[in-house]
Amino acid sequence: MLNRIILLLVAILAGFQIVSGIEGLGTIPIAYYTFSYGIFLISAILMLIMGVDIIEHDVAALAASTLPLGFSMGLVGEFFLEYHLVYASMVSILYAGLVIQKLRKKDKAALLFQILLHSFSGLVLFIMPLVLIVQGKVPISFIGVSVGTGLIAIGGMALAFLKSGKPLLSKEQIYLIFPLVLCMAVIAYSVGIGQG
Amino acid sequence: MLTKMKHYWPLIKSLQTALLILTGLAGYVSARCPVYNLLTIAGLLGSLLLTASGATILNMVWDRDIDAKMDRTKNRPLPRGLINVDEAWIAGIIISLLGLFWAATLDLAYTLVIFAGLFIDVVIYTIWLKRKTAWSIVWGGVSGGMPILAGRVLGTGDIDGIGVLFALGILFWIPTHIMTFSIKYAEDYVAAGVPTFPSRYGIHKTRVIIAISSLLSALSILTSGLLMDLTIGYLRLIIVLAVGLMGLALSTMYGASERVNFGLFKYASLFMMTSMFMVILGAR
Fold first, then answer.
1. Which of A88, A184, B34, B35 is 20 to 30 A from A94 in CA distance terms?
2. Model confidence pLDDT, tens digit, residues B17-55
3. What pLDDT, on the 0 to 100 scale, is given for residue B258?
4. What pLDDT, on the 0 to 100 scale, is given for residue B145?
5. How far is CA B246 from the centre of its chain?
6. B2-282 — its CATH code?
7. Which is it for the CA torsion B69, B75, B78, B83, positive or negative?
8. Do B241 and A42 touch (CB under 8 A)?
9. Best residue in A10, A13, A16, A18 for a mutation probing chain B (most B CBs within 10 Å)
10. What is the pTM of this model?
């Protein structure tokens, strides 16, 4: 029951961010942030409707991979617009590679693309806010973006271990904490991007 | 009296009726925002509540023999004999008429649209076509689109393109809603002798139709939102939910489990409800 309430909170918060939390930004960051908050929103709704264990589904894993991509492309679009096209092209190629290898059922090649993609976008998303804070371009609360990324990474790793059959936590424990991780991540992103 | 009300309550399908009323309110607010006339709003809500409830009671009375044959519905009050059939007929007719009279105090065109919805639902869909053809669902969809069109007509005084698009949004949403349901309860419908798309055309073709109708429903609602100049943030949320609906509908085409199929049924309801709230909140 508590998990369902938490998931509902994730959906409401992500929905609120899409409606009004990102108003006032440029068109490009709004598009990307909408995309990533949309992944939060739809994931929460689907988990509410079908159960938390849908996160083990291959399509869910592919969709979840796009979460850091959207936020990182939004950040690049917001603060380094001149590099946006190069960055977007690069991560899109990596993502296309991941999807193609998944469809071809080439698990090792897919894993390589996944590692490259997540390392790259994860680092951008984790480090860029810190750099921007140090440079004084954004308030300290922007650290929420890095915190959110860290939380998503924890959730992603838990899932990866679960799918590999060597989970650090039991399946039940992962299902129990996953909604909470998602909730804390969406709160952290909302604080970071909302105040940035 | 309390026991009788308890038996009648399931007859009006409260969730379905509430969703129809919500669509009517969205149609009205889409044309008249900000809303100042609370009496008109009360009339709109009251007349829709009465006509939708009346129509549902009449459907339940007519379909009581089918309901008795289906596991899912055999415990409803009418098949169980908890309510007198003649009394239910009279209640359905009186409640529907009260709704129409209330509507007539508001606007003639509005009343005609509501009457069309009532007539199509009870006479054309339920009495005439439901037991004959799987395509009866189209008429179910048309009647489902009438409350939102009626609300819009009450707001604008006329039938306009946005109102028709909204009604199409509901019309195309109905197959997603009903066909996912008829896939889940396919055996029940076969036992009751009610033709459905899964029994007539097979599950795969039904899922293709669900995917196409979901796409058309989402596009109709989005286009209406654009044309009515819905506040951009609310439109963004509808776009996100519409993409989710289409994605889920497409995924059911490729060997989806029963769980995903019924997930689509629930998601489609949530999509429609949220879209209507977004129209109400984001109208200007």
1. A184
2. 999 999 999 999 999 777 778 899 999 999 999 999 999
3. 79
4. 97
5. 19
6. 1.10.357.140
7. positive
8. yes
9. A18
10. 0.90
